[in-house]
Design brief:
Strand content: 15-25%
Number of domains: 1
Helix content: 40-55%
Distance between the termini: 40 Å
Radius of gyration: 18 Å
CATH topology: TIM Barrel
Number of strands: 10
Order of helices and strands: EEEHEHEHEHEHEHEHHEHH
Strand order of the largest sheet: 3-4-5-6-7-8-9-10
Bound molecules: nicotinamide-adenine-dinucleotide
Shape: globular
């Protein structure tokens, strides 16, 4: 079984470099999928209040037999719960559904700049962190301008920004902003949602060269680029395949082939307008 290396967040907490995402996995199916993932060696699970599968995720964790301290659980605050009091209430509800008394990472899911409540929301996150009910706090889908403002107006720098990132949307500007602030980049939809990316000829060529699958070389590209990744699958063989990425390395030619794939095109919504 592969042992997943960790990255040290800006508050000293260790986070697995590869985790399991459960977006669009129905609650009852999440029990089985998360169970399979933990069995396969995943120790980090990425859910969110809006995924409506925190309950199933929590059940799988409880049933896994793996001590809670060896797992890294992330959940996210939904947009309609932004604001100081609402965020504190939403966090309690997430913990209750997960059946745990702390999370490892709590994220503001989207900045929703038009409502302008993310700084106020962050105050609640700082309180949750201070109480030890989240080991780390961070954001998701924050553009550099949102991150700059949050860092300028608060005392805790987000540990992580979870953003859409894959070889066809490489996010150079955001990654540079993260580096400036000491924020870890976590890639959502790291496989490009399993759409066109995995059949791109250049990806297939690199995969053949290493006798690996397209998904595996894409995940390897993320790891060598410095990203934390959270691929999703509900298929047991793919769940296992996606964590088996620590026994090989892409070389400079492979990385150059990946660099040429950037199209600067999002699959998901634009954070400047969404919410
Ligand atoms: P992904 O890039 O992980 O792709 C998942 C899809 O790729 C699967 O549904 C399947 O169709 C395919 N796939 C998976 N493994 C494969 C393999 N080995 N071979 C071939 N095809 C394979 O997409 P995602 O689910 O959108 O993103 C991963 C996780 O990121 C989510 O589950 C969620 O946890 C997180 N996420 C966060 C946000 C956010 O706003 N913060 C948004 C989207 C996703």
């Amino acid at each position: 079984m592969s042992k997943v290396p960790t990255i040290t967040l800006n508050n000293g907490v260790e986070m697995p470099r590869l985790g399991f995402g459960v977006w669009q996995v129905p609650d009852d199916e999440a029990v089985r999928a998360v169970g399979t993932a933990i069995e396969a060696g995943y120790r980090s699970i990425d859910t969110a209040a809006v995924y409506e599968n925190e309950t199933g995720t929590g059940q799988a964790i409880a049933a896994s037999g793996v001590p809670r301290g060896e797992l890294f659980v992330t959940t996210k605050l939904w947009n309609s719960d932004q604001g100081y009091d609402a965020a504190l209430r939403a966090f309690d509800a997430s913990l209750a559904r997960l059946g745990t008394d702390y999370v490892d990472l709590y994220l503001i899911h989207w900045p929703v700049p038009q409502r302008d409540r993310y700084v106020e929301t962050w105050r609640a996150f700082e309180k949750i962190l201070a109480e030890g009910r989240a080991r780390a706090i961070g954001v998701s889908n924050f553009l550099p301008e949102h991150l700059d403002r949050l860092v300028g107006e608060s005392s805790v720098v987000p540990a992580v920004n979870q953003i859409e990132l894959h070889p066809q949307f490489q996010q150079a500007a955001s990654r540079a902003a993260h580096q400036r602030h000491g924020v870890v980049t976590e890639a959502w939809s790291p496989l490009g949602q399993g759409k066109g990316l995995l059949t791109v000829p250049a990806v297939a060529t690199v995969a053949r060269k290493h006798d690996r699958t397209p998904a595996q070389v894409v995940l390897r590209w993320h790891l060598q680029t410095g990203n934390v990744v959270i691929p999703k699958s509900v298929t047991p063989s793919r769940i296992r395949e996606n964590i088996d990425v620590f026994g090989f390395e892409l070389d400079d030619d492979d990385l150059a082939a990946f660099a040429a794939l950037d199209e600067g095109r999002r699959l998901g919504p634009d954070p400047a307008a969404f919410g």
